[in-house]
């Protein structure tokens, strides 16, 4: 990916002055300009790369895009004439696009609907600046931007909102929206994509769903591979998502083009070890020369050096391990890394699908769930109560029962101050086209799609990859995949003991059976928990920092008490909320 920026103003001299200022901070390449607008690209290290930059001159304007898939001049021209704010609708795969319309005298900017790329915008001395990074804009401001305490509260609560920038003077372009900017500084946002709750896909059989899904996934993977790529590296653990992407990349690249797998090994964390599945994949796909990185060795046990945060976000970590991987990819001759990120959000489904099936009169689902509990080792009554009893109880009655027990259900960790807890709770209310009581599956899945923490991993690899000329992409995070997964019946996504049932059904002839029908999901809680315990003293000192407390966001005593309780626990796993609090404190110390 190429990082893009644009500057829009009525005063051309103000634009040029700001461009000169930006040139003092990073290497810029000017792509296009007129009297009211300037568009360019940059990178974090070395000369600006235009590897994936495409430019089109249309009769009434210009289009500049950082993309992977080839663009259609006729489709761009047609969409430009019809509605330039929706130009992303005719671009597949991850992208950032800037469009200048001569008649409207406005700039339109957008990126792929599912957040693989990101755009920020702000006003600097009368010039509207749009950029792939908040830090690019912040460096141009006469004063350091102030902290957005609501966004920080969300991070401290373990519920970061990707739609909120951490700086008050800089804004994040929301998912599925484009921005329209006039030289006078007027900014207007347009929704160009969203999930249509009325869109349903009803096919005749499981095999029809399987074939339709497999064709779609294959197309999404293909859209994330550039025609000039002779080598594509695919990040491959032993789970369904990354193995599926790797299998399809390997299938799509015919000799002399090749796929190489990049796998993480865990030498000190037995519960995280997926080496048996990884070896089975090597054999099944005949993968040669895999790239292997041991991630829990001595060189990677210092938490603070392992997780340096980026200026834009506490969750964007510029880990030396990512640098190591990018070095290995570049040494292998690769310029593209694909991952399985987004597989959970697009394919996992939701347990409420069993509830909805019962509501629809499918009484056999009760026996199916009880059998699945036995297969997965889960207790039957708590699961049955959660799926089939609790949803039938009116919310007011549940609230009354909670009150009688003196119990107040909350997802907010206790170390937030009351004002921070309220801010985080209010910010978590995402506009949702689905009814929470009547459509619990898609209501929960839609909220997860808008707020998932997986975007942190997406952004982290992307930021490091930039520095090595490596484009990092995530085929599951594709609007076509999202539309399909929300349109099919919930039973296709989760069934019996199998979340991701449709993905498993589609990939059963492409993956080893031990991988495809494995009901055990490997989590890395123990790995992170042990890492925190190994770094207890420096992390305790980190959590003692009072800057967030001075902002009225956190009670340090309660936070430290929770940290000490986690350290003294019998297990080694660490609650994710605590990890978010650690990263937020780390970010404050690094950048503020």
What's the layout of helices and strands?
Layout: E1 3-8, H1 12-23, E2 27-33, E3 37-43, E4 53-58, E5 61-67, H2 73-82, E6 95-101, E7 106-111, E8 120-124, E9 127-131, H3 134-138, H4 149-156, E10 170-172, E11 177-181, E12 187-191, H5 206-223, E13 231-235, H6 240-252, E14 258-265, H7 275-285, E15 291-294, H8 303-306, E16 309-310, E17 313-317, H9 320-331, E18 336-338, H10 343-347, H11 352-359, H12 364-376, H13 380-389, H14 395-404, H15 418-427, H16 440-451, H17 454-466, E19 471-473, H18 479-487, H19 490-493, E20 494-495, E21 498-499, H20 501-507, H21 513-516, H22 525-534, H23 536-543, H24 547-550, H25 556-568, H26 576-591
Parallel strand pairs: 13-14, 13-18, 14-15, 18-19
Antiparallel strand pairs: 1-3, 1-9, 2-3, 4-5, 5-6, 6-7, 7-11, 8-9, 8-10, 11-12, 16-17, 20-21
Helix pairs in contact: 4-15, 5-6, 5-20, 11-12, 12-13
């Amino acid at each position: 990916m190429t990082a893009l920026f644009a500057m829009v103003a009525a005063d051309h001299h103000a634009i040029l002055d700001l461009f000169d200022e930006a040139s003092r901070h990073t290497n810029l390449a000017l792509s296009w300009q007129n009297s009211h607008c300037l568009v360019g690209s940059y990178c974090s290290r070395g000369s600006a790369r235009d590897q994936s930059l495409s430019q089109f001159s249309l009769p009434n304007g210009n289009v500049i895009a950082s993309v992977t898939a080839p663009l259609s001049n006729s489709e761009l021209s047609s969409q430009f004439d019809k509605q330039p704010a929706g130009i992303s609708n005719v671009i597949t795969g991850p992208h950032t696009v800037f469009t200048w319309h001569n008649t409207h005298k406005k700039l339109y900017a957008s990126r792929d609907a599912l957040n693989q790329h990101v755009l920020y915008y702000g006003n600097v001395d009368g010039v509207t600046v749009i950029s792939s990074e908040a830090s690019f804009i912040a460096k141009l401001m006469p004063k350091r931007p102030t902290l957005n305490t609501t966004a920080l509260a969300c991070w401290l609560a373990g519920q970061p909102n990707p739609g909120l920038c951490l700086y008050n003077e800089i804004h994040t372009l929301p998912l599925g929206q484009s921005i329209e900017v006039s030289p006078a500084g007027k900014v207007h946002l347009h929704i160009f994509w969203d999930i249509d709750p009325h869109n349903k896909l009803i096919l005749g059989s499981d095999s029809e769903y399987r074939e339709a899904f497999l064709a779609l996934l294959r197309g999404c993977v293909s859209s994330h591979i550039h025609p000039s790529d002779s080598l594509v590296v695919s990040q491959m653990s032993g789970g369904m998502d990354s193995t599926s992407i790797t299998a399809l990349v390997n299938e799509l690249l015919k000799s002399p083009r090749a796929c190489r797998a990049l796998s993480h090994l865990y030498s000190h964390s037995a519960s995280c070890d997926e080496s048996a599945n990884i070896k089975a994949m090597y054999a099944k796909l005949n993968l040669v020369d895999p790239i292997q990185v041991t991630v829990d060795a001595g060189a990677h046990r210092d938490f603070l050096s392992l997780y340096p945060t980026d200026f834009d976000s506490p969750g964007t970590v510029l880990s030396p391990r990512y640098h190591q991987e990018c070095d290995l990819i570049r040494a292998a001759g690769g310029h593209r890394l694909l991952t399985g990120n987004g597989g959970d959000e697009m394919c996992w489904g939701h347990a409420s699908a069993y509830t909805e099936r019962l509501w629809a009169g499918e009484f056999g689902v009760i026996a199916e769930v009880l059998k699945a509990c036995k297969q997965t080792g889960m207790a039957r009554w708590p699961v049955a109560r959660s799926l089939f009893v609790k949803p039938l109880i009116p919310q007011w009655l549940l609230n009354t029962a909670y009150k009688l027990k003196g119990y107040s259900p909350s997802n907010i960790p206790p170390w937030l101050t009351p004002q921070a807890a309220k801010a985080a709770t209010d910010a978590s209310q995402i506009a949702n086209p689905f009814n929470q009581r009547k459509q619990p599956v898609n209501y929960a899945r839609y909220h997860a799609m808008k707020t998932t923490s997986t975007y942190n991993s997406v952004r982290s690899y992307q930021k490091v990859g930039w520095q090595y000329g490596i484009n990092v992409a995530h085929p599951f995070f594709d609007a076509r995949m999202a539309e399909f997964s929300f349109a099919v019946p919930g039973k296709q996504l989760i069934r019996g003991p199998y979340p991701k049932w449709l993905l498993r059904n589609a990939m059963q002839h492409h993956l080893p059976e031990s991988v495809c029908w494995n009901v055990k999901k490997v989590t890395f809680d123990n790995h992170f928990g042990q890492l925190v315990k190994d770094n207890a003293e420096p992390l305790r000192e980190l959590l003692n920092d009072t800057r967030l407390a001075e902002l009225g966001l956190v009670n340090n005593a309660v936070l430290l008490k929770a940290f000490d309780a986690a350290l003294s626990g019998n297990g080694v796993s660490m609650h994710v909320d605590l990890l978010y609090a650690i990263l937020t404190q780390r970010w404050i110390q690094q950048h503020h």
